[in-house]
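Example record

The entry below shows one chain as it appears in the dataset: sequence first, then structure tokens.
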Amino acid sequence: MAKKKKSIDYSSQEIIFELEKRQEKLMRFNPNLQEVELKCLDEGAKGTHTVAFAHLPKEIKQLIKPLKK
């Protein structure tokens, strides 16, 4: 039986970027679902939300999942 990949925790790293005019911090990446969990750093925002990996900026994608040569 295939081994399941667990989510990769990025909360200890300061990966902060702008997405849809909001400051977001990368918290976790789930390779099975190709989703990332983000925390909004703007005032008044609470909690975390998930976004598809494809919606991230190219620079952030390369940090999370670099191309293997």
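Notes for this example: The longest helix spans residues 58-64. The chain has a mean pLDDT of 89.
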